[in-house]
Amino acid sequence: MSNNTAEPPVIVKPEIFKTLPDPVKETFDKSVVIKESSHERLGAVLYAPDLQFIGTIENSESDASASYTKSVTEGFQIGVAVTISSELSVDVSAVVAKGTLKVGMAITFSAHYNKSTTETVSFQVPAGKKAFLYQGYIRTKILKHDPGAGTYSWDEASSGRFLTNATATYPTPQLEAAVLVEQG
Question: Taking the CB of the first residue and of the last residue of the chain, which one, N or C, has fewer CB atoms within 10 A?
């Protein structure tokens, strides 16, 4: 009869950290687990939500409205392949604050994110106005757990971004990010 003293994994809702945390068990427990085997576990750690500039329309001197269309990518852009199990469905949310403006993002991680998808985003600016379009993203890094050794370490080639489907327009450029994370 075997005496297995290993503790069952603690299931914790993933967290979006303000900065990259230390590679420890508590961090792994709050990651999106993307691989589990008896030899290795991998978790996508999510941190520092921000906005990526997509485009602008300067229509201040015009009497007609103008529109802008661009293809944007949603999903992981990372140095290693990210495969999420079809059994996994995890919800996370965050808010990015820039000055007095806030953009909320809510993501359900599922098998849908096994590869990036591209969509077309259009926005229109009325006469006499200007607008700047941004897409929300979350920085990612893969945390490796070796269950046999009980160690945690970063996969150094795995830094990347998770591009969300959250987009927002602003009347002025948003150059300085003030990251505000509100877990939902």
Answer: N
